Amino acid sequence: MDIEIFEHEALMAAAAARSGAAALGAALARDGTATILLATGTSQFKMLEALVAMEGIDWPKVTVFHLDEYIGLPATHPASFRRYLKERVDDRLPGLGAFHYVNGDAADPEAEAGRLGRLIRRHPAAVGFIGIGENGHLAFNDPPADFATDEPFIVVTLDKACRRQQMGEGWFPTLDDVPARAISMSIRQILAARTLIVTVPDARKAAAVKNAVEGPVDARCPASILQIHGDCRLFLDQGAASLLGRRG
């Protein structure tokens, strides 16, 4: 795991976007097309802004999948991850090759997970742009995460810490308003991305970062699985890195 720590979130986000853009450019040069994975949440605002502003990316040759979506939430809801990514990415890249959205209000969530799984098996990911939750989750794989399933997308139940984070970030007015279930990309599917760009700002993520980087690989901290990935690049600001032991 390659770790870089920055004084300010803006510097961290710009560096993460540059690193991800370079990995994406290499994939496009090698294969002619490329698939990327995108996370959401407040931690990704600045990184995504920097990424879509990057020059030289052949976006018409890029396919996008996002990591997760609440079950039962319409795409028009302010907290919908489809809306988040449509406004911040899809609408700003009119020439984008394809964007495969997770339909959280599908009548049959299991069938929707299966549909996405069949799609992504045809599009191996070159780069995953992801974050780490306050409870250590990756996507909506809350602890104890399922490290074993080979299904690319799964239906999950959100734990209280995860739901409290969503409320705390201002997406929902009360805890009861946060949906209890979601469709999430699985741990193994996230790890299948050739390169992972992990962007984590804010001191409220510091304990999760410490457990992910310095703790054992354990389903109780899902992000600890990143330790086994061959090309995982972790970008932190000072707050997120504040509990790490002295490095170097």
In a nutshell, what does this entry contain?
With 248 residues, the protein is α/β, with parallel strands linked by helices. The chain has helices at 9-31, 45-52, 81-88, 109-120, 160-168, 187-191, 206-214; strands at residues 2-6, 34-38, 62-66, 68-70, 98-100, 127-130, 153-157, 181-185, 195-200, 232-237. It has a domain at 59-69 and 107-154 and 184-242: Rossmann fold.
List the helices and strands and how they pair.
Blueprint: E1 2-6, H1 9-31, E2 34-38, H2 45-52, E3 62-66, E4 68-70, H3 81-88, E5 98-100, H4 109-120, E6 127-130, E7 153-157, H5 160-168, E8 181-185, H6 187-191, E9 195-200, H7 206-214, E10 232-237
Helix pairs in contact: 1-2
Features:
alpha/beta; Rossmann fold; 3-stranded antiparallel β-sheet; 7 helices; globular
Explain how this protein is built.
This protein is an alpha/beta fold and 248 residues long. The chain has helices at 9-31, 45-52, 81-88, 109-120, 160-168, 187-191, 206-214, and strands at 2-6, 34-38, 62-66, 68-70, 98-100, 127-130, 153-157, 181-185, 195-200, 232-237. Strands 1-10-9-6-2-3-5 form a 7-stranded parallel beta sheet, covered by helices on one side. The protein has a 3-stranded antiparallel beta sheet with strand order 4-8-7. It is globular, with a radius of gyration of 17 Å.
Strand order, sheet with most strands: 1-10-9-6-2-3-5
How much is the average pLDDT?
95
Principal-axis shape equals globular
Low-pLDDT residue spans? none
Radius of gyration, taken over Cα atoms and rounded to an integer in Å: 17 Å
Q: In which range does the helix fraction lie? A: 25-40%
What composes the largest sheet? 7 strands, parallel
Summarize the helix and strand pattern as letters: EHEHEEHEHEEHEHEHE
Structural category: alpha/beta
CATH architecture of the domain at 59-69 and 107-154 and 184-242: 3-Layer(aba) Sandwich
Strand segment tally: 10
